[in-house]
Amino acid sequence: MSISINSEDCVYTSCYCEENVWHVCKYVKENHPGLLDKCVAVFISNEKQTIPLWSQKQSTDEKGLVIWDYHVIFIYLAKENYFDVYDLDTTLPFPCSFEEYKTKALGLDHDLQTKFQRYFRVIPAEQYLATFSSDRSHMIKDGKWLKPPPNYPPILTATSANNLNDFISMSSREVPGQILNYRDFVSKFS
Fold first, then answer.
1. Domain Protein N-terminal glutamine amidohydrolase alpha beta roll: where (predicted)?
2. In terms of CATH, what superfamily is 7-189?
3. Could you give the percent of the chain with pLDDT greater than 90?
């Protein structure tokens, strides 16, 4: 069964991918609750917070290359051994098959310098909804917004006002998620 969601209908704010994906998870929970257990949020980052992704809307490069500090995508098990990727910042289709996303957005990891090799925190959507919080302070420098914030209130939980850095950190065990290197991540979803 597919999730009927169009990118135009998604809550979206540029440079707030973690909140955009949280809202995709919320949409599935509210509109397709029986499918939520087939959905995950995925943080992509590394120790240096220098991760390359291609086919990105923010790019000025002909291949769509952007070096993000981190990025967050949504993955859905559409049918046995077939996964769809929902990335609101890509120029690829929405959704996009995992195989196409792997080829055109992730590229190969073994060709990258060590400082660019990616790690992936894979979090079940229900856990992400229950645990993620951000007060957006990471987007404020010298008292000014680096990028305009979303027009809705920050996402908070009863126990946390801001744990975004724990989700981004691939060594933190303070938040849920399975940490995978590139090879294991690709193997899990291919």
1. 12-189
2. Protein N-terminal glutamine amidohydrolase, alpha beta roll (3.10.620.10)
3. 91
